[in-house]
Design goal:
The chain has helices spanning 13-18, 20-32, 39-48, 50-60, 91-95, 120-136, 153-164, 178-188, 209-217, 246-250, 290-304, 322-328, 351-363, and strands at 88-89, 104-110, 116-119, 144-148, 168-172, 192-196, 198-201, 204-207, 224-228, 243-245, 265-266, 270-275, 285-289, 312-315, 336-341, 368-370. By secondary structure, the chain is an alpha/beta fold. The protein has a five-stranded mixed sheet with strand order 3-2-15-14-16.
Length: 372
């Protein structure tokens, strides 16, 4: 019988020797003359020598900045700490460094759509086209763009397009009622909103067109609505003023990455807005920055999740949870995402495990599975 305190698993020597964090420790020894005998020593250094640690993360992951930072940490106080002042960068520009031509960026399945793949080529092309169209709509750095979308590839593309031009992303899941959505989005006054027409869950159909209509009518700052057909064909989409369909918007010539200008913003420039649960009044907006999410995601996903460009990352999540934001950060280290929209126990409890097994059998690579 397993008792509290029993060790359930220990990595083998081969696993430890090939782990990402081992490579980082070897890099520290070679480039910084810092030697650690085990993880606890490394952790102690990382929390005692904050500036040295985070500068090493910047260097190790080759963070690209169009303007240099003057120092790592300007004010060592909370609140008020200011990291990497002077730096100018863009989170999505670092994602676009990843992805071999023809390799899969996103695997996706839902109760509406069969298992499919989106290549890195297609992903990058759609992000740049959409970003360019958002700029044509007048989106400026710091403007908020909201989404009422499920966990599907279009949402990831919309998210990255938003961030690439310095606008601020925020999403709500379609299982939220209109009141829950407005409690969140009215606070941030979005200029653009992406909407879905409905979804399926547990074999049941949920038409969300009336919710979308109510949401749009009560977001007075919205100037454009981008509709993503999902449950119904385009002919059955809501007829809304200043609305444009997803396919029509993306039906533009491809843009080369070299020709695209990623908005260069400060380290602390807002990247995304998430929310508290709303158990003590309306949900509280929580803002994360380009630089903060960039270096924290590099650290977390590389060292703690041990992800590589050959990994696949699955979180079972909706777009209203922070796990969606973390899931999409897997692209930063070149890992493929596995998106699933639907009931994880439908038509039986093993749905997600069968999905993972099918991917592993077909592609014979490492699967990273994180279920919350």
């Amino acid at each position: 019988m397993v008792k509290e305190g029993d060790i359930l698993w220990e990595p083998s020597k081969t696993f430890r020797d090939n782990a990402n964090i081992t490579a980082y420790m070897q890099w520290l020894k070679k480039h910084k003359e810092l030697e650690f005998n085990h993880y606890n020593e490394l952790w102690h250094w990382s929390v005692e020598e904050l500036e040295a640690f985070w500068e090493s993360i910047w260097e190790y992951f080759n963070v690209q900045s169009s303007a240099p930072y003057s120092k790592v940490l300007e004010n060592k106080v909370m609140p008020g700490a200011k990291w990497f002042p002077g730096a100018k960068l863009n989170y999505v520009e670092h994602i676009m460094r990843q992805g071999e031509p023809g390799k899969t960026a996103i695997f996706h399945e839902s109760e509406i759509r069969p298992l499919s793949e989106m290549s890195w080529d297609t992903f990058k092309a759609q992000v740049l086209i959409l970003a360019n169209e958002l700029r044509k709509m007048g989106v400026q750095p710091g403007d908020r763009i909201a989404a009422y979308l499920p966990n599907i590839p279009e949402t990831v593309v919309a998210m990255m397009a938003t961030m690439s031009i310095g606008a601020v992303w925020s999403s709500c899941s379609p299982d939220f009622g209109s009141r829950s959505v407005l409690d969140r989005l009215q606070q941030i006054e979005p200029k653009i909103i992406f909407t879905i027409d409905g979804y399926k869950y547990g074999g049941k159909t949920f038409d969300r067109r009336e919710e979308v209509k109510h949401i749009v009518e009560n977001l007075t700052t919205v100037e454009h609505i981008i509709q993503v057909p999902y449950l119904f064909p385009e002919a059955k989409q809501l007829q809304l003023i200043n609305a444009v369909g997803w396919k029509r918007l993306l039906n533009q010539p491809h843009i080369q990455i070299e020709e695209f200008s990623f908005e260069q913003v400060s380290f602390e420039h807002p990247l995304q807005i998430m929310y508290s649960s709303g158990t003590t009044g309306i949900p509280k907006a929580i803002v994360h920055s380009h630089g903060g999410i960039l270096i924290e995601s590099y650290k977390l996903l590389t060292f703690h999740a041990n992800l590589t460009p050959d990994s696949r990352l699955l979180f079972y999540t909706t777009t209203g949870w922070m796990m969606f934001n973390l899931l999409t950060s897997g692209l930063l280290v070149g890992s493929a995402l596995i998106l699933y929209d639907g009931n994880p126990a439908y038509p039986s409890i093993g749905k997600l495990w069968r999905l993972l097994q099918m991917l592993k059998q077909q592609h014979l690579v490492l699967v990273q599975c994180m279920l919350i």
